User: What shape does this take?
Amino acid sequence: MGTSETVDGGEVFDALVGALGDAGWGVLVADAFTTSTRLHFVSDGACAILARSRAELMGSNGLDLIAPEELPRMERFASESTLDAMPPRRLETVFRRDNGERLPVDIVLDVTLRSDAALVVALFCDTSERQRAFRALEESERRFRLVVESAPEAVWILDERRVLYANPAALQLLGFDSASPPVEPDPRSFLPDDDHPTFEARIQRLLTTRAKLPPQEYRIQRRDGDAVVVEVSSITIDYDGRPAVLSFGRDVTERRRIELRLLQADRLAALGLLAGGMAHSINNPLTFVLLELDHLEHTLSDVLDGATTPELASTQLADAYQGAERIAEVVRRMRAFSRVEERARSAVDIRRVLDSALQLVGHELSHRAHLVKDYAEVPSVNASAAHLEQLFLHLLVSSVRFLSGERPGTVRLSVAQHSEANVDVDLVLDSVVLDRAALDQVFEPFFSSARSDLGMGLPFCHAVVSALGGELIAESDPSSGTLLRVRLPIGSPLSAPPESGQVGPRSLRVLIVENDYAVGRAIAAALAHRHDAVHSARALEARDRLIAGEYFDVVLCAASLPDLDGPTLWHTVSRVRPAQAARFAFLLSAQEAAEHVTLVERTRLPVLSKPFKVEDVLALVHRVGDPRGV
Assistant: This one.
């Protein structure tokens, strides 16, 4: 049999009291349930905390250690306690030292029953350092909140579902006042629908990867209905014990207006440069079309006389159609130069965009330098095609301005994949060298230097690239020239353009509201073999017919009309016949006024941009009038 040893209880108690003292805790043992609470035991740790000797403390009244303001609470606690109803209890109170100093303590009390009396055992520690730390933290938080509350820029905290906090500047930006702040609203409620995918993808990336992202511009719908453009910078923080996004917002609406005015001024300055390229791009196919039509006129006479077969006329007509398509393509490319409001993103082949821009400005570029292209196979980028076309057109126009003609050289345009996340477009001008001062400020909107060819295009390019989440880099070296590098992110499109539906067999009634008789009659003729198409050149006449109850499956309406613009016609009909208003689609020209484009976009109805083909019109009519398909 083994032997057993009994542990000495006194040794264990001494070791326990010593360990508590090393940890900063003191131990007191006193009478329980009496008014004197005479101290029977005082540990070394207790003496150190109270700054008194054991001789002074032993036999004294334990309640004398309590600060006067805390004594009533402790006496009440003692009077309400019994041996059966007093489990171990922890509380905070204040002791008083001999010199009158107050000492905050954290104290644990328990009662033990001895044969002759009941004793209370008190374990306590000094919490003055903790209290000072808490006060310092509260003061720091108070100062931080004061700074945030007084900040002129909007600051808010949100998660993927709610706005958790907004400072007064943010409330003002959103159209609220301090008396009626929003109560944890969904942040998407302040954004238009087509900005939701961008917001959701961005906040998910912030919360899951804590990545540092470049600023993002959003169109914010204020409470009063006004829209403002806000540049938002965000970081990930911990808020109330969980990940959240701290955002700083700046109203850049006025800055955007100034940028648009500067861009318009730069566009006008560049029109002269583009005029030669446009004339060249249109003149050649136009000459071809005119010649083919002239030949076709003679061929048709020969067909009627039986001197030749109809196949030759059909071939000449197809050739003339191809020439007209080339002219239409030039006009479509010019729309990118005249429109800056389009924001819809999709998967864009960056090489096709570059070639489109080169066809407009390449004629002028070829007179000043030798162009070398090097396109690698790269993934599509997630961007607005219109913005990319503007970007590279302005980049090429600015490059032409750099090339003064004094030192004709080589322009190298290359496309390559930089990483799994980015595509690089490099434009190298080997005959141009910029000094450090010019290089540092070349993207500033109002920068000027001795080189008068530093136009306003590069600041616009920088703004577009930044809005797309990319980088525009400028480098210059005497040995290699100047490099302009556009780095754009690869990614799946946030919103893809709708696919054209197939044309169904059902005959539809179509009203064409177009003041250009030639265009209106051509559309009606294109639809006549499948649908009942009616052309009206006056919007007021169309309004009266629609309000009177005449029903059309589709209303193709021009945006700009002399008597009543298209969006106003739609609003008028929508108040009286909302079901008919849902059948509208708008026709936009390349030179459409910006206010008409904005009004059309607010309706969120289908749009067809001129020039277009017969199949484009048929697909739109089918999509609006017979969405079920075949």
Summary: Residues 152 and 169 are 6 Å apart (CA to CA). The chain has 19 helices and 22 strands. Confidence is low (pLDDT under 50) at residues 449-455, 493-504.
